[in-house]
């Protein structure tokens, strides 16, 4: 509803955006305060050392979309153009070459946040401002570089640019096990300290890789739990890891797992152990979707993660490589699975 106040200002009531129309006109709106649910309040209470700014940004993510207020999250990450190249990432669904496609997909699906590198965030930051929380991924790798025993990532964004573009959080990847891991950890600490000081939340992709790790070892339960715990120790607010397998990589860890009888027979039990390693569930942990897989296989995985107490999923290729309507339907089913466990 549009009217005017005594001073001649245009007044808009209802759920519309507030923005200047002309230099001499101002539009106001009735603001409905964001009501933090008990579940979200309990999660925020686990971050007692953080500033109101950080907690406000975590709340924006936790209260957004169809899972808002449940303590569960589904995030769309689109950094695969860096990681795998444009054709491998988008050719199967050419609409996905357009950065606006991903913003709109995340918004229409009712997701919790959208994560992407600097350029993709810049391409839609103005048009989609305020419609979904964004996470700027500020380091990236690419498949043209040699990884070897020391895979690493280049700095491709900054905290200052994330603030400029209105992001709620910054994201960073470390490779536990890489011969370059210590350098990556140092870079993360510098970035995280700056982000926290300025009120941004921090998301850490903790992906074991390199060094003497075998390929199965990258998702081994003992290694995945170690990676999640390391991310918590480094001060990440949101931890991203891969769903763990039942493989045990380290001989010393295997002896402990077998002697105390850690259950690793189902994905739910393995997920429960990852949450346990993340400060006994006091840190938000989301799990990657990985390479594209068939729908039932993906849903079975999501149910296992839910049953193990995961906070949610961060799923890219399994969604944007499908046609839009199919992706929206798939994301709706994923959200439904997490809702039943919230």
Characterize the structure shown.
By secondary structure, the chain is α/β, with parallel strands linked by helices. The strands form three sheets. The chain has an eight-stranded parallel beta barrel with strand order 3-4-5-8-9-10-11-12, surrounded by seven helices. Strands 1-2 form a two-stranded antiparallel ribbon. The protein folds into two domains: 1-32, no CATH class; 34-340, TIM Barrel (Alpha-Beta Barrel). 41% of the residues lie in helices and 14% in strands. It is built from 14 helices and twelve strands. Helix 12 packs parallel to helix 14 (324-340). It has helices at residues 38-45, 52-62, 80-84, 86-90, 99-109, 118-125, 159-164, 181-197, 221-233, 251-260, 267-277, 295-307, 317-320, 324-340, and strands at residues 2-4, 10-12, 73-77, 113-117, 134-137, 139-140, 154-155, 169-174, 201-206, 238-241, 284-288, 312-314. Helix 12 links the parallel strand 11 and strand 12 (312-314).
Counting DSSP E segments of at least 2 residues, the number of strands comes to 12
**Roughly what fraction of the amino acids lie in strands?**
5-15%
Mean pLDDT: 91
Order of helices and strands: EEHHEHHHEHEEEHEHEHEHHEHEHH
CATH fold naming of the largest domain: TIM Barrel
CATH architecture annotation of the largest domain: Alpha-Beta Barrel
Please, what is the CATH homologous superfamily of the largest domain?
A: Aldolase class I
What radius of gyration results from the CA coordinates?
21 Å
How is the biggest beta sheet arranged?
8 strands, parallel, barrel
Order of neighbouring strands in the sheet with most strands: 3-4-5-8-9-10-11-12
Helix percentage? 40-55%
First-last Cα distance: 37 Å
Count of discrete alpha- or pi-helical segments spanning 4 or more residues: 14
């Amino acid at each position: 509803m549009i009217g005017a106040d005594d001073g001649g200002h245009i007044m808009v009531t209802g759920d519309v955006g507030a923005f200047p129309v002309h230099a001499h006109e101002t539009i106001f709106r009735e603001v409905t305060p964001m009501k933090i649910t008990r579940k979200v309040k309990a999660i925020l209470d686990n971050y007692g050392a953080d500033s109101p700014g950080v907690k406000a940004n975590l709340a924006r993510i936790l209260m957004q979309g169809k899972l808002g207020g449940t303590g569960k999250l589904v995030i769309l990450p689109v950094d695969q153009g860096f990681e795998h190249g444009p054709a491998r990432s988008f050719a199967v669904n050419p609409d996905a070459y357009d950065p606006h496609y991903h913003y709109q997909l995340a918004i229409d699906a009712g997701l919790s946040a959208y994560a992407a590198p600097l350029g993709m965030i810049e391409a839609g930051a103005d048009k989609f401002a305020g419609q979904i929380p964004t996470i700027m991924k500020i380091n990236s790798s690419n498949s043209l570089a040699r990884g070897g025993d020391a895979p690493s990532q280049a700095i491709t964004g900054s905290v200052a640019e994330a603030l400029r573009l209105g992001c709620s959080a910054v994201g960073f990847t470390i490779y536990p096990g890489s011969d370059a891991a210590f350098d990556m950890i140092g870079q993360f600490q510098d970035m995280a300290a700056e982000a926290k000081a300025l009120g941004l939340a921090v998301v850490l992709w903790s992906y074991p890789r390199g060094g003497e790790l075998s390929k199965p070892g990258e998702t081994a339960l003992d290694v995945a739990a170690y990676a999640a715990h390391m991310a918590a120790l480094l001060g990440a607010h949101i931890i991203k890891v891969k769903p763990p397998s039942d493989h045990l990589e380290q001989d010393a860890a295997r002896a402990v797992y077998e002697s105390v009888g850690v259950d690793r027979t189902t994905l739910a039990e393995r997920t429960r152990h990852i949450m346990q390693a993340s400060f006994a569930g006091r840190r938000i942990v989301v799990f990657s979707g990985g390479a594209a897989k068939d729908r039932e296989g993906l849903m079975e995985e999501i149910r296992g993660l839910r049953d193990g107490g995961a906070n949610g999923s961060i799923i890219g290729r399994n969604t944007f490589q499908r046609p839009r309507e199919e992706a929206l339907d798939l994301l709706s089913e994923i959200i439904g699975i997490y809702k039943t466990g919230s």
